[in-house]
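Homework-ish question, so no full write-ups if that breaks the rules, but can someone show me the predicted structure for this set?
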Amino acid sequence: MCGIVGYIGKRDVAPLLLEGLQRLEYRGYDSAGVVVSSPKSGGLKMVKAKGRVRDLEARVPKRFTGTTGIAHTRWATHGAPSDENAHPHMDADGKVAIVHNGIIDNASDLRAKLTAEGVEFLSETDTEVLTHLIARNDADTLEEKVRQSLKQIEGTYGVAVMHADFNDRIVVARNGSPVVLGIGEKEMFVASDVAALVSHTRQVVTLDDGEMATIKADDFRTYTTSGTRTTAEPTTVEWEAESYDMGGHDTYMHKEISEQPDAVDRVLRGRIDDRFSTVHLGGLNLDAREARTIRRIKILGCGTSYHAGLIGAGLIESLARIPADAEPASEFRYRNPVVDPDTLYIAVSQSGETYDVLAAVQELKRKGARVLGVVNVVGSAIAREADGGVYVHAGPEVCVVSTKCFTNTVVAFALLALHLGRIRDLSVSDGKRIIEGLRKLPEQISEILETEGDIKKLAEQYAEAKSMMFIGRVRGYPVALEASLKLKEISYIHAEAYPASELKHGPLALIEPALPTVAIVPDDDLLEKNRAALEEIKARSGRILAVAHQEQEKADHTVLVPKNEPELDPILMGIPLQLLAYHTALSLGRDIDKPRNLAKSVTVE
Ligand code: F6R
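A: Not a homework solution, just the prediction itself:
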């Protein structure tokens, strides 16, 4: 999705902004642009380019100097990717420049009104209307011009504004799209993502929805869109600049898959309480008495996080015996859900900024529900909006497709399920059993990662398939869903996921030698049922790749994974399938870290 970076201070701004844009490249974009203000005249100079940040860099002239500037990577929504539609947008007099993330819903009405007043538009974007509103506003201060203009727009924004007549400041505002201020020594940064800031400062202030800020080189202040001052305490970002580097791997995806033993170790660290065979989750804000009154749990997330939520629901049902289910947040928010006071809602999101999830949380809060967050990015919008929650501590995830965050989110759910279970009816011995299982995970994940060479060979064999089927039963079904999503996202091979039990109700018609099936076959009480599904596929000459605890006779190939507790097995079964998707995509020559049409964090509808 779009990215914003801005700077005001003493340093030459263009190289700083270009570096910031490079750090935001992972979010996905199709054009980029930069504006700097000349230190002497205050005049604004702009360069934009369709394509990559390096295309923009190639266009930046030698004398593009200044100490204040804003820059942007754009993901096309209104208008195709082009030089004209790239941000920043400026008014005809070259006084105002803005960069904007989000969508202005009433842009066409405002465009018609402004056109009737004689304004000439240079782009097809929704953002340009805001530029003209600010430029035409006759308030005395930049803050007031921006504030009054924002009042006229409907929609979402993270926005940064420069004005040639007020060149000692940048004014920023947030409504539904992240804006983070970075505080340096006599310099200030702004960005839509801490990734663009951490190589310069780790002291940040995250704006809330409805909040604005004025940043100057040595000072900043925050206030609401109605003008009331707010207090903003800077916090320290945990993540180091190096966590965003590739660290010797060829792709971020490979790096992030490999990091999983350490990442899982982190989500467990400091949380296990052996004395009571439970875990401590400091940020939950839910005491034991309240936890006992929960009658249902509803988990909401999108994509991979939704799949993690499905596994989470299974963990909660089996360990805490609370009825639980998961639903895509994007669907939930549009079906006027019945919000029940005895239901605990849990929003799951790696980025903590996914608009569909945030909107579902806001709708739930409006209806008086209690909402917890299971989130990776500390201080993100969903984390702040929730009443409490569990951070998944996976570290930054740069690859567009999620791997380590998925695994850590599921582990976080296991912790939550254990915590709730031990408050309710889970026995001490079962608590101990799960804790032992959790402690084994990092080592068992390392064991699986060591089999990468074998999985690579298998992936090369299966890469020629036009389509693939993934099946699993009960706990194995969300694993199949996630593995199928991973494969299609990065290899572009069509894939379907079905509960193994549903095969005979329809999808069996598809089975033939050209359609390989990946089957999740744990050694649990459903083993014989799963084997029966393999028989059915084999009888129709289907090729089978089983992910299992023991060799499967009916399968053409079996990838063996170490056994843990049955409740935790889905965590391990997912890992070789991440590698399968990775090596399939690699052998097909795909751009693994930036799959086509996808963005890292979907902050628009
Ligand atoms: C797939 C993937 C997406 C995200 C989804 C939600 O690999 O990463 O499906 O899981 O867009 O994102 P978050 O978790 O940031 O809310």
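Now go work out the reasoning yourself. Hint: The pocket of fructose -6-phosphate is lined by residues 302-305, 349-351, 354, 357, 401-402, 489, 601-602 (CB under 6 Å).
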